[in-house]
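Sample entry (398 residues):
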Amino acid sequence: MAIPVPAGFKLSGVYCGIKTLGEDPLDLSLITCDRDATAAGVYTTNLVFAAPVGLDRSRTPSQNIRAIIINSGNANACTGERGDRDAARMAELAAATCGAKADQALVLSTGIIGVFMPMEKIEAGVRDAAKLLASDEASLVNAARGMLTTDTTHKLASQSIPLGGRTVQITGMAKGAAMIGPKMATMLGLILTDAVISPADAQKILSIAVEDTFNCISVDGHMSTNDTVLLVASGAAGGQPLAGADLGTFAKALHAVAADLAKAIPLDGEGATHLVTVHVTGCANVDAARQIAKVVSESALVKTAIAGADPNWGRIVSAAGYAGVPFDASRVGLKVNGITLYVKGAPVEFDRVAASKSIRDNRDTTVELSFGEGDARARFWTTDLTAEYVRLNADYTT
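Predicted structure, serialized as tokens:
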């Protein structure tokens, strides 16, 4: 099914020589808007953050963004004042392609930390990308490819919704495969829409969506320096700024796009053979449920058990126990792929061969933990942990 580009935007993706051979060859993406656009952002909470994160934080929320430039292969993180100057120069270059001012552009970077940006290559790449700007699906895909590092595929999601007698388009792209751990992960996300929305509302609904999607994924629990999710709204669909029920409908659709993109990241986890969905129910509050889900998702022993198709309930239950959340252990229950392994704080008889086969033969694995403490629930997506993940990350810079 074709994925539309929201009205008002043009995109492109090119290779300018930042990345090395053997990776997806595209490494620079350019997105422009034909009018001043609303923009909102959510960023890494890591105290060590990249130059583009600092720049974008200072410019969002906004109502006059015209361009976004994205590069892969170099994170522009831990690069000091020179990194800040390079990020500002990248924004200036991107803005100039659509006749905008330097402060009307945002920057996203991802890749190796601690290496200065090759600005001559960036400048040449921006010139090439500007010549290819278009609004077709191929240009959208190329832009999505330009943000990839160790990903095996580009990640796109979209929703078309009728609002106020017109159709509003929401289309998002993301990258991420490892160094994934809230908040957020080594990931970039850009969600474009042609809706008319105020900067304050854009920031609010994006923050809510991120909390329940991108902040609920983990591959290895390692928080990045560059995590960024942007929402940019051209307003080209027309009408008054969304409000009331229409704003609620839009927020729900935005959440769906964010969820699809978030799920695609651990699905593409480095070396992963399983996508693991951890459901935690029956907690006293949402924070407790999320904390348990996060700890279980990041347990190396849980992840290796799933890699080995081992229905090792002890690893899952004990991980919940050290999550720092008080609960009555005699009420805990556990199912894996719908097979009951543990009830009211004690293991039960189950077919280990069948349980193992259900993990081994399916890429999707579901872990359900129940606590009987209340009505709060949470969901996390993670991966298994394989020897291939270790190999890929052991060799990343050498």
